[in-house]
Amino acid sequence: MGNQQSSTQLRSQKHEESTTNTEISNSFKLISDNGEVINLNQFKEKFGERLGSSLWNFFQQNSELMDKQKFEIIANKLNKISSFGLVKILISPKNLFEVCVESANIKINKNDEFFVNSFCEQMTSKGDDINSTNLWIEENCPRLFEPVFDKINKIFFGKQNIILNNLQSEILSPIQFFVLRQSLPTTIFWPKPISIDSREDWTLLYSSTKNGLSVNRFEANVFDYRGPTVAIFNLTSNQLYAIAADEEWRHSCKSFGGPQCVLFKFSPEFRRIDLPSPALYCKFFFEIFVI
């Protein structure tokens, strides 16, 4: 029984390796346009300006052309790469962040520069070495590299990406919303899709633009929802906050919320604040006592 199981696992491993090698070979043909080598422009055209340049500079250094053998070596290294390995390739922090955003098909405009700089400064708040940067990402934005891994897997190995809805916010910019999405606790707010065709669906419960700026309407639309929510607030002081709550909103004299509640600050600077539960308190009205 043991030998039979070992033999089955070996055949499965060989089949997987054969499939991977075929996909890598097909990828080389596609990028090189059926040629013998790949140049930098061809590489960047497929991977994107920032990711393509970063991978090329790290693995190719001063070489102007990449042959099939080198391409296969790079592919096999990237097939086993961790987030730590990506930090090592993509460092500096700003290049790292811009590669992730570009891989998510989000364009950076001038209005995003302050937020981008703030996020990158926070990335080195534990230290500017690779270990410290990787640790900060794991603690604050654990799925930051998700679109980079997806792009590498799709191009080198032909693996289909999980297609996510193009979610938008009336308050947060696309880059800020991307950071929020990649930072939320997965177990509560981002269940793993059950198939390649499944997409995450967020239900808009309340919008001041659509429903009017009203505490009563906010209560009517949000307080009865029994599940995790994300509330985004634009204060009159131009500060932007998001509250990820793993329990339903309610009026209470006592704080509530479980261990997955998180407060995010997006303007004027980025901060993630994890507090011991229960951490939420909400009371919009005052009780009047007659003596």
UniProtKB/TrEMBL annotation:
InterPro entries: TLDc_dom. Residues 1-25 are annotated as: Disordered. Residues 1-11 have a biased composition (Polar residues). Pfam families: TLD. It comes from the Eukaryota. PROSITE patterns: TLDC. Residues 170-291 form the TLDc domain. This is TLDc domain-containing protein. It comes from Meloidogyne enterolobii (Root-knot nematode worm). The lineage of its organism: Eukaryota, Metazoa, Ecdysozoa, Nematoda, Chromadorea.
